């Protein structure tokens, strides 16, 4: 079986530095908001080019900036129906109303040409999602946000390290959140996240919300949450971050190999945006017909696949109260039936990538016969 994500091999490659970082935390005993948390924030501020505040998960990295806004129940937040549930979950947790805008069929990111039509007097913000390793057209969304005096937050859970028009994902929108979930291109060994801000004062406010709303010990300025990143997760992330750009280069090499191997097939690629200077390939996702038989064929050959995502957010049972139905967002619905992801990580051997490519082509033939 070829691993979809190989954290075991990655650990063996970085074992010495990971173990040393963990050992240092154990010896210092600074498990909560310790030295490595501050070091990670400093390094990410330099890397991304935005003020960085750590968080306990990618979900909290989206929730906390929303908590720090002046929002009231029923206020509307525009977002995409084609994302992981956390994107809409943070909206609903604050009793806000999600307003979906369909996606671009080529990039699978929000269709910026449709955003303005969804804006009402109750609209307070836009959450764009940078899917599969590249951003949306962030400048276009920023322009809309400024025009209507609303905020723009980038869900950068899949795009840490991506570059849009010369700027890092996380630095273009006024606020962004990313995930360090273990399977991410840069992942901890548990839940972890980071928030990025263009405004230092707002970053400091979100830091207060992140730690129970405490402005100082036992002095609570706000009702916040326990959204702290623990030091062990920061330590693991720092050890991996030393190799992150090297891993991104290897992901690009694998993506180039796949693109060339599948160029003359029936596969429909997720288009690389003209604004994307650097793609981080959080997933290598393609669109195929007869996806189920395609995936079964590969599974029988020991090649795992995944679907990101099989059901759009507006069709999730938890959102039934919105009254949306199949047909509400036809592009997202169509893509959800065709999208499938192949193994993508920095440790896939030359032999394994050839096995994957050969069997993908055979799976296409097999599924078309079915």
UniProtKB/TrEMBL annotation:
UniProt entry tagged with the keyword Glycoprotein: no
GO biological process assignments: polysaccharide biosynthetic process
GO molecular function, a single term: pyridoxal phosphate binding
Pfam family, one: DegT_DnrJ_EryC1
Residues of the signal peptide: none
Keywords: Aminotransferase, Pyridoxal phosphate, Transferase
PANTHER family: TRANSAMINASE, UDP-2-ACETAMIDO-2-DEOXY-3-OXO-D-GLUCURONATE AMINOTRANSFERASE
Protein's name in the database: UDP-2-acetamido-2-deoxy-ribo-hexuluronate aminotransferase
């Amino acid at each position: 079986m070829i691993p979809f994500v190989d954290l075991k091999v990655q650990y063996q490659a970085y074992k010495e530095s990971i173990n040393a970082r963990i050992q240092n935390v154990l010896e210092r005993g600074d498990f909560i908001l310790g030295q490595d948390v501050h070091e990670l924030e400093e390094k990410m501020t330099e890397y991304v080019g935005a003020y960085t505040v750590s968080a306990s998960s990618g979900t909290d990295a989206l929730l906390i900036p929303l908590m720090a806004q002046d929002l009231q129940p029923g206020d509307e937040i525009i977002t995409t129906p084609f994302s992981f549930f956390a994107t809409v979950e943070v909206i609903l947790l604050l009793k806000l109303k999600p307003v979906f805008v369909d996606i671009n069929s080529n990039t699978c990111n929000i269709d910026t040409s449709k955003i303005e039509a969804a804006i009402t007097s109750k609209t307070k913000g836009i959450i764009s999602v940078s899917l599969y390793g590249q951003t949306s057209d962030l400048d276009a969304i920023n322009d809309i946000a400024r025009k209507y005096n609303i905020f723009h937050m980038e869900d950068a859970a899949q795009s840490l390290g991506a570059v849009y028009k010369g700027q890092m994902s996380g630095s273009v929108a006024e606020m962004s959140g990313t995930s360090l979930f273990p399977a991410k291109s840069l992942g901890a060994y548990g839940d972890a996240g980071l928030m990025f801000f263009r405004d230092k004062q707002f970053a400091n406010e979100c830091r207060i919300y992140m730690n129970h709303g405490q402005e100082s010990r036992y002095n609570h300025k706000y009702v916040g949450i326990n959204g702290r990143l623990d030091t062990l997760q920061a330590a693991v992330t720092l050890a991996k971050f030393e190799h992150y750009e090297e891993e991104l280069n290897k992901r690009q090499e694998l993506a180039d190999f796949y693109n060339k191997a599948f160029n003359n097939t029936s596969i429909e690629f997720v288009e690389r945006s003209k604004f994307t200077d650097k793609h981080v390939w959080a997933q290598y996702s393609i669109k195929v017909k007869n996806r189920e038989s395609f995936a079964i064929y590969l599974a029988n050959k020991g090649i795992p696949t995944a679907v990101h995502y099989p059901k759009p957010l507006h069709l999730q049972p938890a959102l039934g109260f919105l009254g949306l139905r199949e047909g509400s967002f036809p592009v997202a619905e169509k893509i959800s039936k065709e999208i499938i992801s192949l193994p993508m990580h920095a440790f896939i051997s030359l032999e394994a990538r050839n096995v994957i490519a050969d069997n993908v082509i055979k799976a296409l033939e097999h599924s078309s016969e079915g």
